[in-house]
Amino acid sequence: MIAGMPAPQLTRSEPRSRPLGVVLMLHGGRPDGLDPVGSRSRPWLRSRLMMAQLQRPFHRAGVAVWLLRYQMTGWNRGHGALPSPVTDARWALEQVRERHGTTPVVLLGHSMGARTAVAVADDPAVVGVVGLAPWFPPGEPVGPLRGKDLVAAHGHGDRITSFADTAAYVRRAAALASSFELVDMGERDHYLIRGVGAWNAVARERTLGMLVGTRLHDDS
Questions:
Q1: Cβ–Cβ under 8 Å, residues 120 and 107
Q2: Domain map of the chain by residue range?
Q3: Phi, psi of 55 (to 5 degrees)
Q4: Left if phi > 0, otherwise alpha if psi is -120 to 50, otherwise beta: which for 114?
Q5: In angstroms, rounded to a whole number, what is the distance separating the alpha carbons of residues 170 and 186?
Q6: pLDDT digits (tens, 9 = 90+) for 23-44
Q7: What topology does CATH give the domain 9-212?
Q8: Are 96 and 105 in contact (CB under 8 A)?
């Protein structure tokens, strides 16, 4: 950790009883960036809003939802010892293990958070990944998804990350994932604001489907 940088942080929302599973949310970011992720970070706030909107149906299903805030805004992989969201996500999974033992985890990531999710999907607690408007550049490794479930939802109106790259990634992952799905979000863009109800429905139904084995309808 770089001196003076904040540590990664977790916002936790737990059901009343011991959870059947944990949804670990991973927010977006930038390809490179050494700025700390503060409480006004737009990518973090987008995921925080989704967390607030989904925690009630998650709790009704007996599922906890945690949101990770990274140390830094950037992906920063390939730049030596710089902090990256991958390191932070592995730390967060250890925190889940300390609190909830072998409880299964689904990673719910937006943009860079989805790329982070597939990078750490090889953790034994992880049963699947749900990526929203994911950043899956060409050549992104699919190996960590072996034996895991994968859902990727993307809109054709996205000008930040590529629907075509996501479709290609899902095709490559299909050879080793337990299950795979590409959800076409129509003309929706990158930021999960346009059509927020549809984004929330995908996030809720697919994560709960992985954790409790059923697709739940929206009764919130």
A1: yes
A2: 9-212
A3: -65, -35
A4: alpha
A5: 17
A6: 999 999 999 998 999 999 999 9
A7: Rossmann fold (3.40.50)
A8: yes
